[in-house]
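Section 5.1 Outputs to date
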Amino acid sequence: MLVLHYAPDNASLIVRLALEEAGAPYRAALVDREVRAQDSAAYRRLNPVGLIPALETSQGVVFETGAILLWLADRFGGGLGVAPDAEARGDFLKWLFFLSNTAHADLRQLFYPENYVPEGAEAGHHDIIVARMLRHFGLLDVAVAADPALFAAPSVLSAYLAVLMRWAVLYPEGQRRWFRVTDFPALAALARDLEARPAALRAALAEGLGRTPFSEPDPACPSEGSAL
């Protein structure tokens, strides 16, 4: 059985959505951020980077969100991704890695500016990253409108994009309101479609995300663990 090492409303949520869509048997193992369990020796043996998530598989531990999603898509199919020999494979890969390497990476800079800029430079850095993220979401809105089938659930692209949108609404705490889902009509439709699916409802229930976790998100109220 697969084991997903997770914290609520972390990047592991993206993986949980994919697992639920695949109908794959898995167990969720909490990484308790309140006690910095991601820095423990036990967790570092799974993921030496100390980031969440990690997925234990029969082929070993996979970490990095994009890598896990690609592994699941190739392993389980079922619309999670695009087959290696399919014509749309290149489109699938380029947007998966844009989400992982560019959009997600930039969004992290908003959440953890202390890891990227010296003290006193946070305000300017925030403005730069917000501008970058709005450009990213604009590009994605155009891409989804042009090829909705590529991004539509159960694709991992849908899960990844919807969770990034959720975080953009909610974080960083004290600096919200820079992103509105309704400003991006194709992305808003994707969010509504995803959160109505049984797999997304199960994931939202497991992590305390409410009924509209992507189109009108509220902070997580999990039964265990901490999102921050």
